[in-house]
Amino acid sequence: MNAEQLRRLLKKVKSGSLGVEEALDQLRFLPYEDIGFAKLDHHRSLRKGFPEVVLCLGKTVEQVAGIIEHLLPVTGTILATKADPEIFAAVRELAPEARYYQLANLIVIGGQVATSRGEFILVVTAGTADIPVAEEAAITAEAMGNRVERLYDVGVAGLHRLLDHKRELFKANVIIAVAGMEGALASIVSGMVDKPVIAVPTSVGYGASFQGLAALLGMLNTCAPGVAVVNIDNGFGAGYLASIINRRRKRGR
Amino acid sequence: MNAEQLRRLLKKVKSGSLGVEEALDQLRFLPYEDIGFAKLDHHRSLRKGFPEVVLCLGKTVEQVAGIIEHLLPVTGTILATKADPEIFAAVRELAPEARYYQLANLIVIGGQVATSRGEFILVVTAGTADIPVAEEAAITAEAMGNRVERLYDVGVAGLHRLLDHKRELFKANVIIAVAGMEGALASIVSGMVDKPVIAVPTSVGYGASFQGLAALLGMLNTCAPGVAVVNIDNGFGAGYLASIINRRRKRGR
Amino acid sequence: MNAEQLRRLLKKVKSGSLGVEEALDQLRFLPYEDIGFAKLDHHRSLRKGFPEVVLCLGKTVEQVAGIIEHLLPVTGTILATKADPEIFAAVRELAPEARYYQLANLIVIGGQVATSRGEFILVVTAGTADIPVAEEAAITAEAMGNRVERLYDVGVAGLHRLLDHKRELFKANVIIAVAGMEGALASIVSGMVDKPVIAVPTSVGYGASFQGLAALLGMLNTCAPGVAVVNIDNGFGAGYLASIINRRRKRGR
Amino acid sequence: MNAEQLRRLLKKVKSGSLGVEEALDQLRFLPYEDIGFAKLDHHRSLRKGFPEVVLCLGKTVEQVAGIIEHLLPVTGTILATKADPEIFAAVRELAPEARYYQLANLIVIGGQVATSRGEFILVVTAGTADIPVAEEAAITAEAMGNRVERLYDVGVAGLHRLLDHKRELFKANVIIAVAGMEGALASIVSGMVDKPVIAVPTSVGYGASFQGLAALLGMLNTCAPGVAVVNIDNGFGAGYLASIINRRRKRGR
Amino acid sequence: MNAEQLRRLLKKVKSGSLGVEEALDQLRFLPYEDIGFAKLDHHRSLRKGFPEVVLCLGKTVEQVAGIIEHLLPVTGTILATKADPEIFAAVRELAPEARYYQLANLIVIGGQVATSRGEFILVVTAGTADIPVAEEAAITAEAMGNRVERLYDVGVAGLHRLLDHKRELFKANVIIAVAGMEGALASIVSGMVDKPVIAVPTSVGYGASFQGLAALLGMLNTCAPGVAVVNIDNGFGAGYLASIINRRRKRGR
Amino acid sequence: MNAEQLRRLLKKVKSGSLGVEEALDQLRFLPYEDIGFAKLDHHRSLRKGFPEVVLCLGKTVEQVAGIIEHLLPVTGTILATKADPEIFAAVRELAPEARYYQLANLIVIGGQVATSRGEFILVVTAGTADIPVAEEAAITAEAMGNRVERLYDVGVAGLHRLLDHKRELFKANVIIAVAGMEGALASIVSGMVDKPVIAVPTSVGYGASFQGLAALLGMLNTCAPGVAVVNIDNGFGAGYLASIINRRRKRGR
Amino acid sequence: MNAEQLRRLLKKVKSGSLGVEEALDQLRFLPYEDIGFAKLDHHRSLRKGFPEVVLCLGKTVEQVAGIIEHLLPVTGTILATKADPEIFAAVRELAPEARYYQLANLIVIGGQVATSRGEFILVVTAGTADIPVAEEAAITAEAMGNRVERLYDVGVAGLHRLLDHKRELFKANVIIAVAGMEGALASIVSGMVDKPVIAVPTSVGYGASFQGLAALLGMLNTCAPGVAVVNIDNGFGAGYLASIINRRRKRGR
Amino acid sequence: MNAEQLRRLLKKVKSGSLGVEEALDQLRFLPYEDIGFAKLDHHRSLRKGFPEVVLCLGKTVEQVAGIIEHLLPVTGTILATKADPEIFAAVRELAPEARYYQLANLIVIGGQVATSRGEFILVVTAGTADIPVAEEAAITAEAMGNRVERLYDVGVAGLHRLLDHKRELFKANVIIAVAGMEGALASIVSGMVDKPVIAVPTSVGYGASFQGLAALLGMLNTCAPGVAVVNIDNGFGAGYLASIINRRRKRGR
């Protein structure tokens, strides 16, 4: 929505031909920028409360760079997920302040300041191999301004490691449970707490894990209510969802 | 946790042999009642913020009746899901005040009073055939004390029906999107709002819907972040999850 | 292997034309009875330590009755699994002493005397709806002469119910964990003990449980070693396997 | 069908031993050229309205080159799909005028002149990563003489980008909707227009997209009628189908 | 969109506050009727060229009747698919002129007059058991005003039956190929003609047909370009798609 | 191909306008009878060596009866597979000599005389529950004029039952191995003999047998070469295939 | 079975302590050579009519070489399937006369002399990309002493290419149909002939071919009886099976 | 559980505020070491009878090295499974005595001394390609102090190789059956013996083996009772399970 468009819309409101509420709704939907191979949704921040995020999977290095080049002047926060080092090299050319979290394959430019106080999101993993996905979730949530705590490698093979951290579980506002193999962690955690548990199945495992299918099905069939499932390896989605749930409360206070 | 057990625990706290925090943790975990074919988790209300719910699937009429008979003296709210009329007949013998929502296969005894004010949960369906699952979600959330609004049959075949209700979408605190077939509703809704969208795939459809698999996969792969998926036809789980998310905000205010 | 056959074999041994070891091997393999639509493996008891078991699935009432009629004079113990009441009616005609465990769809004739002392097999279930499969396992093991203890409805939605019975878990010689839905019980139990855990996925659940597939995959991918998986709803197989593992120890003492 | 064969056939017609209609039918079926590892269907152009297309997948470079070498003297248009640069290098040796569309892995030799007037095919994609498949469709349709318009990256995460181009959707004669992940674009588009929508699922995505299965199932289960689905990543098939539908109309006018 | 709404819109156009094009767009999107459990898309006829169709699957008899009761005064043509006799009984109460095609489980009220001249749609089946789905397609297309020809039981087990009807294949404007089991019919037909072939997999078959999956996959993987696939058993979708393709041409002439 | 058609064809041959070989080819392809809902392939007997077989699945009683009514005057042998008693009742009206093999759901009218001498086909099953499918195979082969021997219930749980019949295995000309559950019988048998083994997976089993998928995959992956697999429960297909293989040899001698 | 063992067996026969038939049976089962990581089944040639074949998949180069080193002195024919060039290099060290068919990944040492007369096996493919699997089948059959004819690239996209070779189809004794994608070739061919058709699905294709699953299911569900299916890409298995079927006839004459 | 924690616990016991049994239970659950990316379960040895095992899959070289560095001072036995040579290089830096079994991708440090006397575990494989998984099982069991015997390449294609070793099968205390492709070995072996058979499906095979799915399903559906199944390629799990079963017996004596 460029200036000209905006001007016309406001004139309509002024003249009374467009109601305030209708104008608001139009504003929620209109603006994006067409760069040929992509239509940048500059207005997403207004509508969704967070700017558009770049999923690098299946895009060429040039496309990712082109998208970020056009996003940079418009938004304070850019996330690029599933990004390999080659993509990061191209992004750093454009934005020297870009940070690369290699384990999580995540690029962050700007982002809100993570706080260490107040309601927090707890990210737990069943094992060490689940950490890349967990970090994708944690860093996403931090870039969205949340306090995040981590509790890694507390899977059900040694349940006492989890029970030993009951207090963190009880204190968290939202919990993200990241697990591959049989994915039982989500059920265990959700059975213990009264808050939303976002379950992220990972492709960690082999054989009949079928690249995360076993964990996914397990989490969908949890006998403990209160579990929300996202796609296999979708750490970003979990961090985003946790953030908008957590924000509810913080804004409320 | 009967009186005797409680007395002993409190004596320990008094004598100082048990710290206050430790006692709290024990209280969160201990009490249940063993009736042979079931172990009733009377303490779930304290731990999870809502009493144990009876999933009738695979249980005999006698088992369901036996469980409810033991829950009745202890809890103010009982939900029994996937309940057929025969089960309801047996339950009404025990609790004449029980209400049966036949479309949703749901029995409710007691429950909190649904309010018509404040933050609300919006339940939307793609079609008319998705209503049974949607009602399971809506009634569950109402029984947990939430205000619930319904918006049915606004699937993507006639998108204007949904766009016409943008305002309800913008006002809701949490949205439950119920859809079978291709399940696109969840993506559409989530692309428009900045709040959590709980996606419930239904088994509505035929052929390559594979009893809800198509909708489930579609919802897990949504390109619009902020979507939490539950099991196919799991209206109860969606209503429960929406409720604990909604509660966050309400408590906050 | 009828008397005539046996006589010839023994003559060979006596005459030295057949070694003792070779004769033994032949004895392990030979005898069965051909009744047209079935070849009754009368010798299985010698070879496997337990007589042939009749899986009723897919057999006509007449076929089951015919098989049992021929087994009755030969063996002291007959098990018929997945048997419906119509089959039992026919069996009772032949063997008035036959016992029918309706919940488990199991017919037992004879069988060893279950003992209440010594090493025991513990059968645990996640929920009430898993009990039919659990009973199939438990009764099978009892008919094979084992002491069996039951611990039902201790699934992960209320973990304290399980933790409260740690002592039974620690004391058992073999554990059978029966669970549908996400099947996490097997992992939890196996993570706590140093003995074999036989995991039985059940078809309890709906939607993405896919008739037990979710539980099956979960159990196969357990992160806690020491878990043996059998087919979905295969209570008999679990009871049988537990019995031959338990027997090892008992014979040893 | 070489000259000799043709001569004989025509003689029969002339002599009356073969009716005109029968001769026509034979002409539709007969001619091809056998080069050992392939039988080139030189007559396909007559029968199908477009010459044989070379799917490079699973063929050696030598085989593709051999096929094209024999097609060159016979046909004015050659398409080779799923072609990697090594194959193109070999083809360029034979036909210096060959054009390589690297993003689409497509080689075109000759082809009809794409027009910029008249009825057009609109190719829309949900995201940037779907462009390679979309280009395969678009270039195929152009090589078959159609006017093609492109509308890329208008997926449902930012629905206003699509709604903003309603006019193009309304004006197109046929629409090709290319989408991975949940594939909802096809349903949305088809719900808005009264023309055929050809849905192309792509393998873009990860985890539970299962290499395009989620998009495929979603598109097959669309609740908006008027959707035709082709294989995952089959841009060529979509372009071809759109072309023969579009041709209907153009011929009609 | 009732009269009042229309009047206001037209006033805006007259006053110049709304452009003609914008008004058109709004007209395409606005009107529907809310009857609680359904939102009737009365405007679909304008937008899609055919009124809303009622898929009876998963709806109660009362819901279907309620929907049709509200559609009757507004539209000249009503189709109800996957309708059983009980539903038809209720519909006939409301609309005595309703026709029930039992083999196809299809109810038609009104509908355009099928013509016997001009461009036609050819519906072919592989076997006799595919006829119900084929009739759903054929009657749908007829109700949409198309001339339809039928060619049943010409599957590849006796290819000469199909080859014997080459002339019908060559003359048709659009072909619908309906087949279960291996679904090869679609490939064969498409290899012979230069027009769109709409492939409908059916659930006819057993064993590894997996309720139509085999036919579906076969049709998606056809080596003959020009094939559009719809959902398993989706005769209605095929008839609808064929109709909007066929209409192109007829309007053109 | 009626008399008139034949006459014309022969005249052409006589006049020399049609070569002998071409006439033969036409004879292989032409004749069928169109009865509306079916096109009866009366010529199949000539082309395939056996008349058309009626698969009753998905056909109405009236359709099956209509087909058989038209086949009766033309062919000496009619097979109708997957036929239930209601269908048989209708068929017996038309053909009192029809025989019904209820276990195999097979109707036979006429058929060749099974011989008890010469090369034979051996049908083996793993269990009693596999007999219906085995009988479908055996009776089909007998109706096609083969000598058939049966060896039932020799599955791998009691291998000695099979090893005890090695001589039959060695003597048979073709073997059909019918097995559900894990389907290992086919591998075992094929590892012992030097003749074709036709493997028929059955849907016998439960849980992870997935209606015969386990047996099907097992048989396809056999490590013993010489195994031909047919569809799950396709006894007819196995009997037919065995017959045309067996015929090879018999003709040879 | 070394000389010593043989001597003892023969002595028994001579002394009458072992019947001739029993001795024969023992000879069929006994001899193999244990080389640690493999037990070479030297006797397979006697039992199966063809020596053991080496499947290289999953074996190290050293293991394959070791096996072939031990087979060389014992057998006149060695086949090694799925062999890459590195393996061939090692084999040629041991057997300079070894031939490598790179397209088919097949190594042949010795083998019978393929004849160009008499009954032949016809190998047909749908496309050029199916040739590697077809060659594996053809060369296997030739190495087993059969006359083999090839007919490649006659898939259903250009059916006249196949119909043009009807005579070859009619003359062949056994047909091997090799096809990927939808695999319709097998049904077409089998519908035309009265001889066994061995169907080999290949992994040629992409997207919803799911690595050959589509072709496999299509072939299993063929509506034309007389089709035997082997594993995806199992050219060897098809060639072997065709050979033992073909041998029947040839021996017979 | 460090010294300080232990001291406090013991003081409680001494003072009587903690019973002996309760103290024992706490000891079973408490101690682990938190190194950030992992929580080392130092106490597993006490609880499970064997120290924590490192599954290298999905872990970086640094993470594996870090874990082993912390385990080294605490435990006498370390196993690292699915370890590639690069990981071994890093481990050898820390523990020069580490042994690498390359075929099995297994690192062992310390471990109990395998004995050559007493009850033994027998590891059998169907083929040579199954040996890597079998060795993972065998070496694991040896490192846990068991006597292990190996019997490789005795699959059902040459059954006499297995029957020739009946005596080993009869003598073993526990049997591990490792097989890919159709996985029939487990059923055959279990049908012959009266002891637990642990079935390990492997991913050996191609086409419709679907990376071990065929073998997995086959083993789960075995018709011979007494089979315990573990995950595809899970040699470690099988070795571990066999060891705790074997230990039962040994302790018993």
Q: Give the largest interface.
A: A-B, 41 and 41 residues
Strand count of chain A: 11
Q: What's the SSE pattern of chain A? A: HHEEHEHEHEEEHEHHEHEHEH
Q: How many DSSP helices of chain A?
A: 11
Give a written overview of the molecule.
- Chain A is an alpha/beta fold and 253 residues long.
- Chain A has eleven helices and eleven strands.
- In chain A, strands 8-7-9-10-11 form a five-stranded parallel beta sheet, sandwiched between helices.
- In chain A, helix 10 (213-220) links the parallel strand 10 and strand 11 (227-229).
- In chain A, helix 4 (61-71) runs parallel beside helix 5 and helix 6 packs parallel to helix 11.
- The two termini of chain A are 34 Å apart.
- Chains in contact: A-B, A-C, A-D, A-H, B-C, B-D, B-E, C-F, C-H, D-E, D-G, E-F, E-G, F-G, F-H, G-H.
- At the B-E interface, helix 7 of B face loops of E.
Topology:
The structure is a homooctamer of 253-residue chains.
Chain A: H1 3-15, H2 20-29, E1 33-34, E2 39-40, H3 44-48, E3 54-55, H4 61-71, E4 77-81, H5 85-94, E5 99-101, E6 106-110, E7 120-125, H6 131-143, E8 147-151, H7 159-163, H8 166-171, E9 174-179, H9 185-192, E10 197-201, H10 213-220, E11 227-229, H11 235-252
Parallel strand pairs in A: 3-4, 7-8, 7-9, 9-10, 10-11
Antiparallel strand pairs in A: 1-2, 4-6, 5-6
Question: Can I get a quick summary?
Answer:
8 copies of one chain form a homooctamer. Chain A is of the alpha/beta class and 253 residues long.
